[in-house]
Design goal:
- One of its GO terms (biological process) is phosphatidic acid biosynthetic process.
- This protein has one domain: Glycerol-3-phosphate (1)-acyltransferase (3-Layer(aba) Sandwich), CATH 3.40.1130.10.
- Helices cover about 45% and strands about 15% of the residues.
- It contains seven helices and seven strands; from the N terminus they run ααββαβαβαβαββα.
- Strand 3, helix 4 and strand 4 form a beta-alpha-beta unit.
Length: about 240
């Protein structure tokens, strides 16, 4: 029962913060340069990271912040729920996120996303989406933005494993920037298919940048997947299966 109450309190703050952002931040953001938009709109993400901890009884164990490179990189992380999409925005801003285009249609939330120049994909056209990721991803990195790509392509529940996609590694190799691997167990605290949140320790591990110069995307992807899955074996409360 206490988790239900905590979750209700959390969502009250969640939607209130979204409303405040829509009323006070969104009208201003279009008139700011891109860097200014990130700083302003990221206030919402900063609030959610803190509010989730306070309202839902979650403790953060985040290791490896000192490994985050100063320049642009391709961030690759496992994808379990909404939390990591929020946290990774504040971990290394400014960051361009590869996402499904349906998210841009969500009132307020989607409007804010549009202003941050994401790479929005039509997943019903995979060939076109892949080309879009490669061309726009390299272009965004060239402007100094980092790029966030979830190699699993969609949310995957804890205890389930899906083959990784190499598009993020291809982008990193073409742009000559490192890949920053991130592993977490956020889906155990913020279940992707349930609204009731669970208290406990949310663990995040940030790896050393993986260099791409002179390497193939397959080599880079193999190292990214091995590192993330190895970390998940250590930090997950739900056992990790072998990939089929």
């Amino acid at each position: 029962m206490i988790n239900v109450v905590r979750s209700l309190v959390f969502y009250a703050g969640y939607f209130l913060a979204m409303l405040v952002s829509g009323v006070f931040f969104l009208p201003i953001a279009p008139f700011l340069p891109l860097a200014g938009r990130y700083r302003l709109l990221n206030l919402y993400n900063h609030f959610l990271v803190v509010w989730f901890r306070v309202a839902c009884g979650v403790r953060y164990d985040i290791q490896g912040r000192e490994r985050i490179p100063e320049g642009p990189c391709v961030i690759q992380a496992n994808h379990q729920c909404e939390w990591e999409t929020v946290f990774l925005q504040v971990m290394k801003p400014p960051v361009c996120t590869v996402l499904k285009q349906e998210l841009l249609r969500i009132p307020i939330f989607g409007w804010g996303l549009r202003l941050l120049r994401p790479i929005s994909l039509d997943r019903s056209k995979p060939a076109r989406a892949l080309k879009q990721v490669l061309t726009q991803g390299v272009a965004r990195l060239g402007t100094g933005l980092s790029v966030l790509i979830f190699p699993e392509g969609t949310r995957v529940d804890p205890g389930v494993r899906k083959r990784y996609n190499k598009s993020g590694s291809v982008v990193a190799c073409r742009a000559g920037v490192p890949v920053l691997p991130v592993a977490h167990n956020a889906g155990e605290r913020w279940p992707g298919r349930q609204w009731v949140k669970r208290p406990g320790v949310l663990r995040v591990r940030i790896g050393a940048p993986i260099e791409t110069q002179g390497r193939t995307p397959d080599e880079v992807l193999a190292e990214v997947e091995a590192w993330i899955e190895g970390q998940l074996q250590e930090i997950s409360e739900v056992p990790r299966p072998l990939i089929r």
